[in-house]
Amino acid sequence: MSEFEQTVHKATNSKITAPKRKHVRAIVLTCYADNSARPFFNEIYKRPLDTNDVVCYKALTTIHKVVQEGPKNVLADTSKKINWFESLRAHWSRYPDTKGFGHLIAEYCTFFVDKIRFHIAHPEFDGGLSIENFQKNNKFEDVEIDRSIQTVSHLMDLLDAVFRMQNAVVDAAPYNDCKTSSFIPLVLESYAIYLLVVQFLTALVDKVDTMEVIEFAIQRFYTQYQTLRNFYLNANAINSVSSVIAVPNLPPDPPKFIRKRREAPKQRPPPKELSPPPVRQELPPPVPEVTQIPVPVPTPVFIRQTVPVYANPFMQQQQDNSMWGGQFGGGGPQMQYQQQPQQQMIHTPPQPMQMPQQPPPQQQFDHNKQSQWVTFNNEEETNNRSRSQSQQAPLEKKEAQLVQSSGSPTSSLPSTALSGGSSSAEKTRVITKVITKTVSNTAELNALRARVEELEKLLAEEQDKNKALQLRLSEREAMIQEVTVARKRLAEMTDSNNTYTSEVVKQNEQLREQYMALRDYYEKQRLTRLEADFTNVQKSLNAYISSLDNPNNLGNPDATHQLVIEDLAHHMSQAQSLLNLCSKEGDIPEMDIFGAVNLVSDSLKNLFSDAKGASRLILDQGLQSRFLDAARRIGGLTQNLFESVRLQGGQCQDEEDRKRMAAGVSSLQKGVGELENLARTAENAQAADEKKLEDQGFDLDDLAERELMAAAKAIEDAANSLLAAKAKRPPKKEGEMPDVQEAILEAAMAITSATSTLVGAATLAQRERVEKGRAGGPNGPLYRRDPTWAEGLISAAKAVAATTRALVDTANKAASGQEIPGGTEEALIATSKAVTAATSQLVAACKSKSDINSPSQHKLSNAAKSVQHATNLLVAAAKAVAANVAAEEEIDFSGLTITGFKVKEMEQQMAILRLEKELEYARKGLSGMRKQQYQDSAPSI
Question: Among positive and negative, which fits the CA dihedral 464, 467, 469, 471?
Fold first, then answer.
């Protein structure tokens, strides 16, 4: 699965959470890189959109965001998917809604269909309806009025689609972040529409000639404004929305659209010319009433009936007036005035009437010719109803027309009279028509009254419903008021909670900073202490290795090869204990690790001391060199092990640290095994030498010679160290007297030189004695039966070397000004006497078995005298040092009071007693050491 597939899968997973912003942003960047949405839709098609409603809803939300933020080709690719959105809507509309997402998916698909149709009709807008992108290629002032009005209408339709989607989300309880995630693109979409509509209406206000053209659009905008403001208030109250985008906060009052130029006044229509009122003609005198009225059987009301009627204008006017009178009861005087001629004409029998002028026959022919058949139907009833509601002005106008058509009123009366008296059948038809129309009008009035009552009932019901709706409206307003108060209270609580949270976060940050500072401080202190401890350990190891290479260090004189092997086992066990301790899980006290390190260091110190002493028992120089090299290698491997512990901070932190320490211990094991093999080889060689010593008596003499040569080498190394110490001192200027320290160094060098000459002479004398004994054969001076003398000579040579080395060390310390326990003068005198005693013992041992007249004996005596002379010089220099110290510490008693004098006297007495006691203890200790030395030494056979 590629990275893009994983991103789409994560953005549209089945978890009921909002799509993460980073995933949507990654999809948008990929669309920009491809300049298309086809790869995105290919991955969307692979998701279970028809079976999982959560995945489908999150996919639609992601598509909406990608359309808004992606390139313009994304909108073009989405517009081609209108059939897919419709099929998806139809699919989820058929299935039951279990989680509240099915209805939302259908409504969201409807929104997408409306949006796609809008962009098809208006391709100048991008997917996000950005006003900046629109103004790059268009200007609101340049758009035509009709096109602008159409665009505003379509934008408001799209805003209604947004409102429908918002209402669907609000109604889809219970709420969660997944459902409200669509509010983010909907808020951005609606606010972009709001800005565009405001700009278009602002431009249209000054472009149209009259405000009536866009008044409907403005009123619709005001209606949508309140809904849009409530939508933003609800969206701002949702944390998952307000934390991602800045929800707009619209003012309570909508923007006003005011024209920048005054509107041209409307043109008034020109006044109509008033024509003079028509002259009203007086009616003829009334005709006497008819005593008997033949009443025919009435015709059904709704059955059309055709009757002949003369088309006399005056007769038609009388018939119309009779119908008006029958319908409205003839309540008015004008109706009575109109009905009187008709009743006279109907009920009066035909009588000859006096007329001023006889109408011509041709006029009567035309009158008969004008008679026609009139059909009374519903259309005529409708005309009669409309005529019954008219006023007198049309009647007067009709009378004027009758007058004009007849020429004169006098000429119309004879024709009417003649027509009324011509035939009773015609009168009957006329009366039947009037009665029929009257009955029809009565039925219609009854139907109208029933309709009025029905409408009144409906009106009462509607009024009741209106009251109920007003009651519900008042309840809703009260609920809105409560919600507003609760929202305000919630906002206050949110502000207080945010303040408290910020304070808690600030305190947590401060505590975290303090904790980090303390942790860093203690860690720094621990590392500093660790570095200091390991530095001290490394210095100790370096000192041990230096002591191994120091010729003045003879090591443990009682060391044996078996003791070295035991030291190796002990050192290896301590190293293994250190490894086990550092490899443990959990917290280990730091002091335990340091204790284990010190134990390893102490075991190495004992190993080096015993190895140095045991190396003197190895006669083979090559084996001795390999033996010491193996010991040095163990010291280097131990240093590497300590360095590993230091680098990892004591305890092993991971498997790599454990492997490194295990490798260090394994290397140390190999070095220990090598030294152990060499020790065993040396032990075997020593056993062979001892066996050879039992068989041949000259071996002790050879051993004594070797010991004398080793002592000479040790004394030579001590002399070299004195020369090095003297070279470090600054040279004296010409005329300056040498100081005491320089005198001490010179005396020590003289003693070393004389001792070296003495040991050389003793070595020469021993070699001569051995050669003479070997040359004498079986009867020569063989000393095989006197091994005690050989051991005495050997011990005397060792004593000379040891005392000389101690004298050199004491002299170096005195010359450098270091403090010596017991005092500098005492240390120098004691070591000098020890050198004198050791040289005397060596001279006595050499003279007892050698030829007195031998040249080596004379040289040995002279060397002994030189040692004695140099020792006296050193003692003199030491006494000079003591004199200087006494002069510096001389107390002036002249300034003391009587009390102070007594106190000082008691202090001096106490010091004398203490020194006498220490002197007695020292003498007893020296006597005991000498007795023990002679008691422990067993005679050799």
Answer: negative
Q: Is the peptide bond before 350 cis (omega within 30 degrees of 0)?
A: no
Residue 303 to residue 432: CA distance in whole angstroms = 14
Q: Cα(397)–Cα(386) distance, rounded to whole angstroms?
A: 17
pLDDT at 269: 59
Please give the average per-residue pLDDT across 547-565, as a whole number: 78
Closest C-alpha to 420, from 360, 283, 412 = 412
In a domain, 463, yes or no: yes
Tell me the three state secondary structure of residue 376. strand
Q: What pLDDT does 530 receive?
A: 74
Both 115 and 86 in one domain: the answer is yes
Report how far residue 896's alpha carbon sits from residue 903's, in angstroms, rounded to the nearest whole number: 10
Q: Flag whether 292 is in a domain.
A: no
**Per-residue DSSP letter, 777:** G
CA dihedral 480, 484, 486, 491 (to 10 degrees): 150
Q: At what angle do helices 183-207 and 145-171 cross, to 10 degrees?
A: 150
* One domain, residues 14 and 161: yes
CA distance 800 to 862: 16
- β-pair type (305-309, 372-376): antiparallel
Strand partners, 305: 376
Kindly report which listed range (195-199, 246-250, 936-940) carries the lowest average pLDDT score. Answer: 936-940
pLDDT at 84: 93
Residue with tokens 């807008």: 125
Do 187 and 247 meet the contact criterion of CB atoms below 8 Å apart?
Answer: yes
Mean residue pLDDT across the chain = 74
Could you list the residue range(s) of the whole structural domain that residue 460 is in?
Answer: 299-350+368-526
Instruction: Say whether both 706 and 686 belong to one domain.
Output: no
> Rounded to 5 degrees, what are φ and ψ at 178?
-70, -45
**DSSP code of 375?**
E
Together in a domain, 785 and 898: no
pLDDT of residue 282: 53
Round the CA-based radius of gyration of the chain to a whole number and report it. Answer: 69
Do 184 and 321 reside in the same domain of the chain?
A: no
| Cα–Cα distance measured from residue 836 to residue 855, given in angstroms and rounded to the nearest whole number | 22
Q: Give the span between the Cα atoms of 156 and 217, in whole angstroms.
A: 9
- Close Cβ partners of 15 (under 8 Å, ≥ 6 residues apart): 54, 178
Q: Within a domain: residue 539?
A: no
DSSP state of 309: E
Q: How far is 347 from 345, CA to CA, in rounded Å? A: 6
Number of domains in the chain: 5
Question: Are 855 and 707 part of one and the same domain?
Answer: yes
686 and 707 belong to one structural domain:
no
The reply to whether 797 falls in a domain is: yes
Mind listing the pLDDT tens digit for each residue in 559-609? 888 888 888 899 889 888 888 888 877 777 777 777 888 888 888 888 888
The tokens of 165 are what?
């989607």
Average pLDDT over residues 292-314: 42
